[in-house]
Queue: 2 jobs
Job 1
Amino acid sequence: DIQMTQSPSSLSASIGDRVTITCRASRSVSNYLNWYQQKPGKPPKLLIYAASALRSEVPSRFVGSGSGTDFTLTISGLQPDDFAIYYCQQSYSSPTFGQGTKVEIK
Amino acid sequence: QVQLQESGPGQVKPSETLSLTCTVSGDSISGFYWSWIRQPPGKGLEWIGYIHSRGTTRYNPSVESRVTILLDTSKKQISLKLASVTAADTAVYYCAKYDNSGFDYWGQGTHVTVSS
């Protein structure tokens, strides 16, 4: 299995801040890396696929980058609706998720 | 717009078999992978397995010896059976549509507690 490691596990930020979440794969996943947002009591929502492709309804302040083993999700201009848990997931082989990064209000 | 809805018992006794169904509406079931994912209380996401509309399956090695995923294309339903459950199988269980671009449509999830 490919292990996915996210950092940090949690972070505190203010409205308007820029935040960056990192995801590292235990071996190369090419660009088969996806990002999800999950709010309490809800299923995860796919934000970004293929490392950097934004789903159509997702705001442009969400930006994904990276390839191989190292990836980042950047949220520019944090909004109240963005406080949630974010997961990365590789689809290069049998799917595996990172452990999640909780974005909290400072 | 694809919609998925999970259903099944909310409680299962230890050592018994957990059985859930996911009903798909709004789109064809053909040509896609249909997956089960679970999330223990307060924890992260664990992929359980998937089935393609052609019938091929793949399972997470952590549960492979206990899990079966089946597809009924006429009813547009995907079923999950997990045998010999323990308290560690207590989780919210989600079904989701999957391809290499990720899990793009999810059900709302169903909570299953393993308890006597």
Note: The mean pLDDT of chain B is 96.
Job 2
Amino acid sequence: AQRVTQPEKLLSVFKGAPVELKCNYSYSGSPELFWYVQYSRQRLQLLLRHISRESIKGFTADLNKGETSFHLKKPFAQEEDSAMYYCALKYNFNKFYFGSGTKLNVKP
Amino acid sequence: DTEVTQTPKHLVMGMTNKKSLKCEQHMGHRAMYWYKQKAKKPPELMFVYSYEKLSINESVPSRFSPECPNSSLLNLHLHALQPEDSALYLCASSPPTVNTGELFFGEGSRLTVL
């Protein structure tokens, strides 16, 4: 069965510190993985998708099939990065399964 | 128009009421979704429509009845709900791209069942 695990419910870092939000997945097929973000009082929106291998707002995420991980990283956190982050797995063409989420709090 | 619009934003209903949630998008997306999100929990998939046909029903109770009248509209009809159905109901759509389709979410309809 497919599963997405985000082990940290809350991650607090100081501004300028590196940040890594962990995501591990379990899926027998070829995974498509995404990071979604929800800022306060805003809708859930896409941050990154593994297939694009892009950097958005300084965040990157690399799919590691050996470790079945898709961790989200940023070298220098900013206060405006404070938000709820969800790792999501797309499978069976149209199904998206969301991890439990990690709340990132960047302190000044 | 690059947004998914949901109405109403808030809805309070009794257990015997019948109400509907509405979702609209004009981005040409051919897949539309209903998700349910309880407080401090991730979104949980309820239904998926693909090209106006119901393609996925995640064993949702029949008191929730989805409808897709056309490619831009998605409704969720509610009848005889329970207090535990109180949640944020999110609509999403995705473009007709097999490999890179992402979800575009609405702001949600917050439902309270008394």
Note: The radius of gyration of chain B is 13 Å.
